[in-house]
Sequence to fold (406 residues):
Amino acid sequence: MSFFPHGFAEAFLSRVASVVGGGEGVVPLHEPDLGEAERRSVLACLESTFVSTVGEHTPRFERLLADYVGCREAVGMVNGTAALHMCLLGAGVRPGDEVVLPSLSFVATANAVGYCGAVPHFADVEPQTLCLCPDRLRDHLRRHVDRRPDGAFNKETSRRVAALVPMHAFGHPAKLDDLRALCVEYGLALVEDAAQALGTRLDGRGVGAFGLCGALSFNGNKIITTGGGGAVLTDDPELAAWIRHTAATAKKPHPWKFSHDQPGFNYRLPNLNASLGIPQLRRIEELVAAKRRLAAAYAAAFADIAQCRFVAERPEARSNYWLCTVVLDPRGELGDRAEELRAEVLAAAHGRGLLLRPVWEPLHTLPMYRRCPKGDLGVTEFLAPRIVNLPSSSHLGRALPGDGTA
Ligand SMILES: Cc1ncc(COP(=O)(O)O)c(C=O)c1O
Fold:
């Protein structure tokens, strides 16, 4: 096909290499950015011997995090999946409920719903943000969900629809104002999956607590890391207190007695992990700036290839550009052959040590979620074979010029 000339993969990779180099070893998709401050903080924690559930680093990290995002409370969790699980339980999601979420997400978003005994209900995304599409969702809810005084109910399954979980894909924020309005109309709890989006702002405000609560991840591949870790963000102090208690085995405070007042989880962020998080969080704006410079360089490098669309932030958003993203064949000229082209690009890239990655398989296609309720997922199905993530470590952007406007 003439539109995609022979050698497209090479042309694509030359653009990537023009930004990050190539040919001298491996360029991973994402590496943690750790320095002397991190080493000192972790060593100090080790020397204190408070490496686990007790210690001063976890509460300090939580305070810094809430202040940075601009919400009232942050509760440190052992990982982002546990944070999402606690958010959903705190939002009142019960066994047999349905929770609406994008099919285009990492599997943890749906798994956390399953941990509550609830059922994922998949909705479509929009091409621009790669996040839940408010217009398509409104249309879907009008047709398939009944708003009654006792809640919202799926007309086909009769199950209660309890919550909506937008996910901020690769750091680009979902359209939270429109989604929040839908939640109000249908009486749904708004729980953000902000695992990828620490440092992302919408209308000047950090994402994660636009609704009832939200979850962050500090896995080693995220913009800041605590090794493994996560947090719940919320403006509701009672909810934060309930999560703090329930995630710490629901143990009643007492100097020596072991007494628990409800079933709980062992989900709290250990002090040792928080000791790594504090210096990481102190550098977050530097890391975001480096990633934004990297994004600006990729955007410029791909500007002249009509067969690619670099995913850029919209004016009201400041993306953290956690993973820089290109959509191949954005107008669909290749039809079913887009996935073949992407496979060619990925194979050539890995052959050169450039560890590009395809987006996740849509959740509604995974064996355990195939029979879950869903809307029309046309945009998800169009995008899934076309999305490629580019090497996005912050150190790649540090030496680049510019103010980081992609
Ligand atoms: C969208 C999304 N949700 C949830 C998670 C889960 O976070 P964790 O790996 O810390 O459990 C991730 C992690 O990659 C994620 O990308």
Summary: The chain is about 35% helix and 15% strand. Residues 8-33+285-398 form a domain with the Aspartate Aminotransferase, domain 1 fold (CATH 3.90.1150.10). The first strand starts at residue 73 and ends at 77.
